[in-house]
Write a structure and sequence with these properties.
Layout: E1 4-7, E2 10-13, H1 24-28, E3 31-39, E4 42-43, H2 46-59, H3 68-82, E5 87-94, E6 111-118, E7 131-137, H4 152-163, E8 168-173, E9 177-181, E10 185-190, E11 193-196, H5 207-218, E12 223-225, H6 230-235, E13 238-243, E14 247-254, E15 257-258, H7 266-282
Parallel strand pairs: 7-8, 7-14, 11-12
Antiparallel strand pairs: 1-2, 1-6, 3-4, 3-5, 5-6, 8-9, 10-11, 10-13, 13-14, 14-15
The structure holds N-(5'-phosphopyridoxyl)-D-alanine (PDD).
N-(5'-phosphopyridoxyl)-D-alanine (PDD) binds next to helix 5 and strand 13.
């Protein structure tokens, strides 16, 4: 089994894979990305990730030089050749290679890379550790719906969370409005209704967020895509995070204030279970 990279159609060992120093992704953060989970050797919600990759690339005026059929084939080749069953695919597209300039260079081809790395499968639902979170001001730009490789504000907030022994920093905008986590979307059960920030430019439209919304819809659980505050969050009866790597992760405490005595709530448990059912359905393996 081997970590592999795919760079503009060439496959090589990940440790040996190289991109140019003048790639604008490296010099200027001029690119967008996706992280796609693979279970049982099968990609999970690959179409939705590709659709979001196109939106992100389009928003920064990059045309991806490969068809979705090519990208799916490349991702599947990487999975098969790597030999991994539980892994993730990282995909990134940048504006390309050119002499450093803030102006978009003309006539260059965007650079596309992917790689595959193994992932430890998450434990059984009962064993998933509820996450402690801290809250921090959301210092990002106003285009958080674009999944750009410019992640510095996320990294700085995540590092503060790590140093505070927390799993995630929940970010808030003026008015203490909760937007999302540094690498996850945030849901809260407040006064009997599930709330999550509306799908605007202030959050990433998470694929896992949408899966959870679909489950809420399918189970006729009341939910609202509506703004709520840090104060509302701390009073919530259940809080959970969603992301490709965390799936549905219960939150145990926020800024040291315990949510539900540290135990995942029934609704969170139901969502974790249904999320796993969707994985089992889509990623049956051979
Ligand atoms: N992050 N919000 C932000 C800011 C994110 O970076 C992510 C995912 C999410 C959840 O999106 P999804 O459900 O589509 O994974 C929300 C990925 C996993 C990462 O950067 O590693």
């Amino acid at each position: 089994m081997e970590n592999l990279a795919w760079i503009n159609s060439e496959i090589s060992n990940l440790a040996e894979a190289k991109v140019s120093l003048e790639d604008r992704g490296y010099l200027l953060g001029d690119g967008v990305y996706e992280v796609i989970r693979v279970y049982n050797g099968c990609t999970f919600y690959l179409n939705a990730h590709l659709e979001r990759l196109h939106h992100s690339a389009g928003a920064i005026r990059i045309d991806i030089p490969y068809s979705d059929t090519d990208l799916k084939k490349a991702a599947n080749d990487l999975i098969i050749k790597s030999g991994y069953k539980d892994c993730y695919i990282y995909m990134q597209v940048t504006r390309g290679i050119a002499r450093r300039d803030h102006i978009f260079p003309e006539g260059i081809t965007p650079g596309m890379v992917m790689y595959v790395r193994p992932m430890t499968p998450l434990p059984d639902i009962e064993e998933v550790s509820p996450a402690s979170c801290i809250t921090l001001p959301d210092e990002r730009w106003l285009n958080c719906h674009i999944k750009t490789v410019n992640l510095l504000p996320n990294l700085l907030a995540r590092q503060k969370a790590y140093e505070a022994k927390a799993i995630e920093a929940v970010l808030y905008r003026p008015g203490n409005i909760v937007t999302e986590g540094t690498r996850s979307n945030v849901f809260a059960l407040i006064d009997g209704a599930v709330c999550t920030h509306p799908r605007t430019n202030l959050i990433l439209p998470g694929i896992s967020r949408q899966i959870v919304i679909d489950i809420l819809h399918e189970t006729e659980t009341p939910y609202e895509e509506t703004a709520f505050t840090v104060e509302d969050l701390k009073k919530a009866s259940e809080v959970w995070l969603t992301s490709t790597t965390l799936e549905v992760n219960p939150v145990s405490e926020i800024d040291g204030e315990i949510i539900r005595g540290n135990v995942p709530g029934n609704l969170t448990l139901m969502l974790m279970k249904k999320f796993r059912e969707k994985i089992a359905l889509e990623c049956k393996g051979d």
